[in-house]
Amino acid sequence: MANRLLVPAAALLLATVMSGCGGGESQQGPAGAPPPAEVGVFKLSAESVKLSTDLPARTAAFRVADVRPQVNGVILKRLFTEGEEVKAGEPLYQIDPAPFQAALSSAQAAQAKAEANVTVARSTIERYRPLAEANAVSKLEVDNALATLQSAEADVQSAKAQVETARINLTYTKVLSPIAGRTGRSSVTEGALVTANQADALVVVQQLDPIYVDATQPSVTLLNLRRQLASGEIKRAGDDAAEAKLTLEDGSAYAATGKLQFSEVTVDATTGSVTLRALFPNPDRLLLPGMFVHAQIEEGERSGAVLVPQQAVVRDARGQATTMVVGADNKVQPRMLKTERAIGADWLVSDGVKAGERVIVQGIMKARPGATVAPKELTRQDLMPGAKPAAQPAAAAH
After folding, report:
1. What is the CATH number assigned to the segment(s) 52-61+207-303?
2. Chain-centre distance of CA 163, in angstroms?
3. Which of 24, 107, 210, 219 could be a cystine partner for 166, CB 3.0 to 4.6 Å?
């Protein structure tokens, strides 16, 4: 009898326990689901940006003069200090002037002789004229006297030219600087024999203020720029020459701003690039010829540009730029981007997103395509280095 009573009681207890367990599972399921992941988003906007290109470049002197002698002779003295500034027309070397002074004196004497012959021939003509009127001398003698006078006058002109040549050669014994600039290393010393128009320069003088900066740019980039300017996609920043800035070899910025002078009209067949030349002031002679620098050349201005923070852009296995966009329903959508160039801490994007959309800049690893997230809008100030992250990972429910 007791055993028959225990069996229904045990069955009832088991049913109650199983019912309680089932009810507990149905209540804890929804309560145990994790909340949407918190992410930081940035709202894109259309803005006007100035486009510039960073190009490797070399500096070149504004003017270069290879100083060579124009007469033969021995160097008596060097009249400058190597590495110092000289003015245009300032003497650099003194060549022995003695033989040229003698040549000048000889030419002057020849001129004096020719002028004396002119005087004699003119006097002869003056004596022959009244005699010719009285038929005391023949017409042939008068004509010969006139020809002698003309020949003597020609000899005077030739002698004057010889004097001028001798005077010029004497002047050339002082080798002058053709331009103002800084001298280099002298290739000769006192006592050296030099010849006119020799192959080796005595010294090189370079004008360093202003100074040229030559940068190379791929021809395809130049074609794209011109096409965008022609279509109106990019407008010129101004009517004047484009501005240029420099970054020196040590990474510091050069204080002065330069102007783009011209672009080469010929494409280098080996590199497929063209040369851009900018002119920079160089009053302190900080820039020296041959220095490697980086030139930032302003190309123009683009209106309605969309800039995406670099924190929002990742690369897939193929190297394609992608980002995560949070829609109006707070669901995550993956997007493929077409990036053109980096501008500061942003990417200039021409396709894939548009102004007004929100891209994930913090917590992007927690966002999954199609998942619902809890977005918190951030500003550019929040994205600055050292800024405190606005979105923190949600605590896991236990």
Report:
1. 2.40.30.170
2. 51
3. 107
Question: CATH fold of 74-96+173-200, please?
Answer: OB fold (Dihydrolipoamide Acetyltransferase, E2P) (2.40.50)
From CA 108, how far away is CA 166, in angstroms rounded? 9
Q: Count the residues in the chain.
A: 398
Residue 177 tokens read as: 């600087």
Which whole number is the average pLDDT over 60-64? 95
- pLDDT one-digit tens code per residue, 159-209: 999 999 999 999 999 999 999 999 999 999 999 999 998 999 999 999 999
Is the pLDDT score of 214 beyond 50? yes
Tell me the C-alpha distance between 268 and 237, whole Å.
28
* CB neighbour class for 85 (10 Å; exposed up to 12, middle 13-18, buried from 19): middle
For residue 212, give the H/E element and its range.
strand 203-218
- Contact of 54 with 276, CB cutoff 8 Å: no
Under DSSP, the state recorded for 312 is: G
Residue 61 has pLDDT above 70, yes or no: yes
8 A C-beta contact, residue 46 and residue 305: yes
Residue span(s) of the chain under CATH 2.40.50.100 come to 74-96+173-200
* pLDDT, tens only, 69-124: 999 999 999 999 999 999 999 999 999 999 999 999 999 999 999 999 999 988 88
Round the CA-based radius of gyration of the chain to a whole number and report it. Answer: 45
CATH 2.40.420.20 domain extents, the chain: 37-49+304-383
Cα–Cα dist 297/285, whole Å? 22
The CATH 1.10.287.470 domain(s) of the chain lie at: 97-170
Q: Determine which of 206-210, 219-223, 320-324, 336-340 has the lowest per-residue pLDDT on average.
A: 219-223
pTM across the whole model:
0.67
Q: Any idea which fold 97-170 has? A: Helix Hairpins (1.10.287)
For 37-49+304-383, the fitting CATH number among 1.50.10.10, 3.40.50.11750, 3.20.20.380, 2.40.420.20 is 2.40.420.20
pLDDT band of 340, cuts 50, 70, 90: confident
Cis preceding linkage at 30, omega within 30: no
Beta bridge partners of 194: 73
DSSP 329: T
